[in-house]
């Protein structure tokens, strides 16, 4: 018997595809892709925390918790990239 001439392809499960995911290396796992990337993420976290504090001071302590719970529920049904919270 001859083996099949087709190559199986997994669209969603393929992890070792350098054309789609970039080259893999140990250094890229340790260090971010760009020096400003860590700064961007820390500023984003700081802004989210500040927004939660402002909402808690304005509407009460339960309001940011309710918003986080709503975000978690909605993220199960909507793609995370479509959430603008």
TrEMBL record:
InterPro entries in the record: Ump1
Pfam families reported for this sequence: UMP1
The UniProt record lists the keyword DNA-binding: no
Keyword line: Chaperone
Example GO biological process: proteasome assembly
Cellular component, GO, one term: cytoplasm
Keyword Chaperone listed: yes
Superkingdom, taxonomy of origin: Eukaryota
Family: Belongs to the POMP/UMP1 family.
PANTHER family assigned: PROTEASOME MATURATION PROTEIN, PROTEASOME MATURATION PROTEIN UMP1
Name of the featured protein: Cyclin-B1-2-like
